[in-house]
């Protein structure tokens, strides 16, 4: 990558490393954002889904005669109609294998259930009408003849011999019996251990609760046979491939995916849902656009949920306190169907992330992935990364207490040392670098660790319990994928970045513009970002797994280098010099040793042809970079009122190594959001089902989200060690807040409770029950 002149004042203001304000915000705050539900296509009709009120049952019939007779109703269709139209199913795409080497048992999920319903909210039909109100009335008039069956909602219960079976082809409800590690060596390590710590940990199921409910508009052009889907997503390139290849059964050029602004996703909007096919098929039949927008109650039932694991976690230590092995034995709840990446969280991501910062030589993960009569589970912020770190940190804190060791010293004893990098881990990853002990020391200092005894005495005097917790984390970002980096010098003097990641709240425009500004010296306020149109893409990994900057940022950096190569040759011709004598710095091509030169924007204009296309334009695909390893240390202090069990935060410090930071303000914001979601899981959030599979936490009256007064003021410190795995040296930050906050908060609560283990969410009721025993 070319060097930039950091003495240039605009680079000091808008370049890499500067806290540039989000360019997206004025547009959004003025209400000018365009979310899917904001759109209205001329002549559009409305779609409403008909959902199962039963968690498990056999579909005998669906009577839609009354619904079809309601004025304004245009269509009422069932799963049989979609099957006869030749559409394909949704399925898991992961090539995972059982412990015996056989592949996982996949599930081909139709967009509408045809034989059985398998969770409350399972769609069985849809209605299209002239108005949304008429469609709702008709959906309520559809009569379902379903024989209710016994239901099972807990993964471990689904494994019981007498559990109701969801599928004839899935014996025992088990789709995958995953195993990683050397079972015999791990067993030997535990047998030889001087101490073994063992915990039973429940990783509570969550509703994703994105601010914007899912919405879609389907269109169809009969003349070209081409579909268009307007939908909130995490990446249009991958969603187009899934929808076209697997579901619509058409070439990808017969489908265009358009995504505007997206009000949050956290993994949930990454893949296809049944409603999308319903809108597209109805649009084809009716010859007009069809729109669907979920309500919040529907979202609680139909949006893919997060987490939901039952884990036995074990840590073996030798007499000196060195870690010998870690072992996780788990049940992972898949829900009623297998979502696109459903088994990933409790399998491979457990493996990679339970390693964390530690030189643990043996890792064994055994996970049974089970189907149950619940909403399908898929990725939620971190997707197994926070969980792996959480299990390890709870084990370490408990082991320190059980063996009478200092928890800080125990961590330092087992850290991977700087002189050991690159370090090949037992999890199969190779860490390129880190400074874990120094980072921990910085966190202890920022949290005033040594001043804790005085604060503890003050809490005791006030009749309150106090605890403190450390949450170390190291997470492996998403696997590498090809990413587009296209740069277009427009006629109006702006430069457009086109890339396949997608902003759903992260602030891509500002960060990507900073990269381009640093590399090419293009005026910052002249840079535009275009995402969300599959017609413009030849590659694109979407946004997820904390990899956007590493992928799109690297693609932009490499594309910038290609622009400079083009510009050097073109400016040499204009300046009447040899290309070898042309230098580029801070947005200007000059003849070496002289002041003769030309600005890159002027050069782009001179090279523009009659059609307005500049010869400096570049369309580039970044081949991919290995995953990176963001890490850090969170320290939390809490007080608990014994009479009520209410937890309040006294302080919260996060020290993070995110490698090279492009925009410190955006990174701090990402950390704050992740910490808030981690606190939500730790203290408030839990999906609950009744024995017959009814969702008992289906509204915000029953499901707790953290509010502003539940959250602490966050201290944020950066301790960067640049990554060696990508051109920018970045490590990713989007999911790290959850990875550090879960263990920090729960370790602090456990400490306040005298070391007793408590599962998430640590609600006042649960804490009061622990204290009452």
How far apart are the first and last residues' alpha carbons, in Å?
Answer: 63 Å
Average pLDDT works out at: 96
How many domains? 3
Unreliable runs: 1-6
Strand order in the sheet with the most strands: 3-5-1-12-9-10-11
Overall geometry: globular
Going by helix content, strand content and strand pairing, the class is alpha+beta
Proper CATH architecture of the largest domain: 2-Layer Sandwich
Helix coverage percent: 25-40%
Which CATH C-level class of the largest domain is it? Alpha Beta
Specify Rg, calculated over alpha carbons.
27 Å
**How many runs of DSSP E, i.e. beta strands?**
28
Describe the biggest sheet? 7 strands, mixed
The CATH homologous superfamily of the largest domain is named Aldehyde oxidase/xanthine dehydrogenase, molybdopterin binding domain
Keywords: Molybdenum, Oxidoreductase
GO molecular function: iron ion binding; oxidoreductase activity
InterPro entries: Ald_Oxase/Xan_DH_a/b, Ald_Oxase/Xan_DH_a/b_sf, Ald_Oxase/xanthine_DH-like, AldOxase/xan_DH_MoCoBD1, AldOxase/xan_DH_MoCoBD2, AldOxase/xan_DH_Mopterin-bd_sf
Domain Aldehyde oxidase/xanthine dehydrogenase a/b hammerhead: 30-150
């Amino acid at each position: 990558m070319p060097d930039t002149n950091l003495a240039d004042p605009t680079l000091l203001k808008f370049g890499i490393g500067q806290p540039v304000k989000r360019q997206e915000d004025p547009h959004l705050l003025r209400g000018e954002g365009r979310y899917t539900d904001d759109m209205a296509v001329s002549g559009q009709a409305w779609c409403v889904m008909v959902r199962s009120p039963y968690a498990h049952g056999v579909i005998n019939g669906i009577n839609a005669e009354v619904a079809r007779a309601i004025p304004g109703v245009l269509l009422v269709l069932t799963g049989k109609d979609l099957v006869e139209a030749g559409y394909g199913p949704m399925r898991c795409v992961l090539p995972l294998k059982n412990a015996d080497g056989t592949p996982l048992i996949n599930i081909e999920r139709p967009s509408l259930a045809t034989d059985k319903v398998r969770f409350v909210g399972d769609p069985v039909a849809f209605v299209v009408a002239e108005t949304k109100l008429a469609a709702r009335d008709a959906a309520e008039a559809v009569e379902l003849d379903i024989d209710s069956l016994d239901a099972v909602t807990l993964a471990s219960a689904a494994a019981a011999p007498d559990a109701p079976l969801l599928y004839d082809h899935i014996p025992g409800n088990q789709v995958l019996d995953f195993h990683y590690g050397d079972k015999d060596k791990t067993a030997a390590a535990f047998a030889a251990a001087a101490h073994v710590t063992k915990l039973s940990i429940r990783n509570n199921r969550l509703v994703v609760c994105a601010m914007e409910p899912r919405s879609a508009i389907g269109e169809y052009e009969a003349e070209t046979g081409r579909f268009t889907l307007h939908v909130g997503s995490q990446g249009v390139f991958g969603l187009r491939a899934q929808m076209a290849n697997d579901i619509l059964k058409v070439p990808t050029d017969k489908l265009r995916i358009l995504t505007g602004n997206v009000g949050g996703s956290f993994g949930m909007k990454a893949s296809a849902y049944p409603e999308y096919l319903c809108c597209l098929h109805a649009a084809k039949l009716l010859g007009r656009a069809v729109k669907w927008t979920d309500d919040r109650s529907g979202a609680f039932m139909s949006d893919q949920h997060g987490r939901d694991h039952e884990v036995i976690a074990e840590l073996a230590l030798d007499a000196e306190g060195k870690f010998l092995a870690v072992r996780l034995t788990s049940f992972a709840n898949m829900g009623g169907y297998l979502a696109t990446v459903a088994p990933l969280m409790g399998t491979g991501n457990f493996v990679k992330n339970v390693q964390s910062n530690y030189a643990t030589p043996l890792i064994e993960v055994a996970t049974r992935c089970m189907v149950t009569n619940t909403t399908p589970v898929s990725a939620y912020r971190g997707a197994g990364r926070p969980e792996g770190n959480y299990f390890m940190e709870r084990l370490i804190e408990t082991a320190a207490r059980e063996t009478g060791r200092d928890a800080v010293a125990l961590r330092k004893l087992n850290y991977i040392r700087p002189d050991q990098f690159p370090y090949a881990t037992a999890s199969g990853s190779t860490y390129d670098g880190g400074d874990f002990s120094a980072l921990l020391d910085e966190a202890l200092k920022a949290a005033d660790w040594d001043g804790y005894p005085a604060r503890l005495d003050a809490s005791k005097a006030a009749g309150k319990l106090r605890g403190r917790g450390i949450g170390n984390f190291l997470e492996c970002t998403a696997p590498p994928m090809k990413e587009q980096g296209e740069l277009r010098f427009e006629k109006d003097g702006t430069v457009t970045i086109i890339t396949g990641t997608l902003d759903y709240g992260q602030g891509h425009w500002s960060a990507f513009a900073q990269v381009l500004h640093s590399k090419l010296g293009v005026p910052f306020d002249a840079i535009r970002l275009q995402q969300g149109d599959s017609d413009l893409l030849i590659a694109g990994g979407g946004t997820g797994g904390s990899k956007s900057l590493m992928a799109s940022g690297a693609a932009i950096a490499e594309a910038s280098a290609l622009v400079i190569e083009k510009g050097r040759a073109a400016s040499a011709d204009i300046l009447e010099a040899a290309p070898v004598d042309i230098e580029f710095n801070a947005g200007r091509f000059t003849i070496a040793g002289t002041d003769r030169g030309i600005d890159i924007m002027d050069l782009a204009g001179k090279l523009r042809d009659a059609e307005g296309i500049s010869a400096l334009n570049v369309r580039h695909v970044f081949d991919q970079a290995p995953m990176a390893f963001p890490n850090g240390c969170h320290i939390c202090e809490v007080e608990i009122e014994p009479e009520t069990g209410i937890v309040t935060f006294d302080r919260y410090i996060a020290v993070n190594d995110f490698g090279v930071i492009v925009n410190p303000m955006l990174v701090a914001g990402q950390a704050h959001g992740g910490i808030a979601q981690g606190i939500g899981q730790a203290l408030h959030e839990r999906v609950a089902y009744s024995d017959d599979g009814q969702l008992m936490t289906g509204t915000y009256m029953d499901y707790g989200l953290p509010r502003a007064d539940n959250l602490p003021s966050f201290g944020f410190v950066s301790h960067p060690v640049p990554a060696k795995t990508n051109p920018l040296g970045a490590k990713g930050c989007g999911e790290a807040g959850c990875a550090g906050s879960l263990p920090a908060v729960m370790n602090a609560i456990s400490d306040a409770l005298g070391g007793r283990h408590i599962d998430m969410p640590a609600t006042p009721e649960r804490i009061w029950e622990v204290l009452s025993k």
